[in-house]
Write a structure and sequence with these properties.
The chain is about 50% helix and about 10% strand. The protein is α/β, with parallel strands linked by helices and about 260 residues long.
Length: about 260
């Protein structure tokens, strides 16, 4: 079993879900007393959130790269970034580490394509819904991505940051998400991406009129499959299966030698 590096804390509420789901997946696959071999680095979300608000993405990326490096030194053999929004800096992490990064959008796209769907709605933070880094990664897999109208995007974002990251779950907010999803389905969405780890604390498959793609669970399942040697990493856009670049493998071998 490979050791999985969990880069979390954004928020810790969702990172707790990652840890729980990962261990359940390994236990259900192997049985008995088995659990996941993993290491967790939990950042102070207040620092990252401030960088997000101030659009200091390079600083945030460097902070996460330092955390990812610590995970590598602790024995991680694959990195799982436990947040959708901070995949904005995924390329920086992938280039700066000598272990593969399991890109969340690739895991999600792989599941959507296997379900036979091509047009999906995306819920997430305002950054994830409005900025191209996530939508473009999905589109590069051949998917058409629909996002809510600006007013609905603001509502979805506000509930995440003012409620869900603080562990607050209300029926009123659940109903608001149901209404946003209904409007996306009316616009043509065949499936719904729960593109923020905290969203899965609020709504489930029963709240959507179309199939749902909970990114936390999909990310975890892909990580567990790879760690257990039962599946490769989900393919990157173009069908390319991600692996550690040759020069990075050589560097790693030299370090171990």
């Amino acid at each position: 079993m490979k050791t999985i590096g969990l880069l979390g804390g954004m928020s810790w509420e969702s990172s707790a879900e990652y840890y729980r789901l990962l261990n359940e997946s390994v236990r259900d696959t192997l049985g008995g007393f088995h659990s996941a071999r993993c290491v967790l680095y939990s950042v102070d979300f207040a620092e990252i959130e401030r960088m997000q608000a101030e659009e200091r993405w390079e600083d945030a990326g460097q902070a996460l790269l330092a955390a990812g490096t610590a995970l590598r030194r602790a024995g991680a053999e694959v990195l799982v970034l436990c947040t959708n929004t901070m995949h904005k800096v995924a390329d920086l992490l992938a280039e700066g580490l000598d272990i593969p990064l399991l890109h969340l959008a690739d895991a999600c796209a792989d599941s959507i394509i296997r379900a036979g769907l091509r047009r999906v709605g995306l819920l997430g933070t305002g950054f994830t819904m409005a900025q191209p880094f996530y939508r473009d990664r999905l589109a590069a897999h051949g998917l058409e991505v629909l996002v809510p109208e600006p007013e609905d995007r603001e509502r979805v974002h506000r509930i995440i940051y003012q409620e869900l990251v603080l562990g607050v779950v209300t029926e009123e907010s659940r109903q608001a998400y149901r209404e946003v999803m209904a409007r996306l389905v009316a616009a043509g969405a065949q499936g719904m991406i729960y593109g923020c780890t905290e969203i899965e604390l609020l709504v489930g498959p029963q709240d959507s009129p179309v199939p749902t793609f909970p990114t936390t669970r999909l990310h975890v399942e892909a990580a567990a499959g790879y760690a257990l040697g039962r599946a490769p990493l989900p393919p990157a856009p173009g069908g390319r299966v991600i692996s550690v670049p040759v020069w990075k493998r050589a560097t790693r071998s030299a370090r171990r030698g």
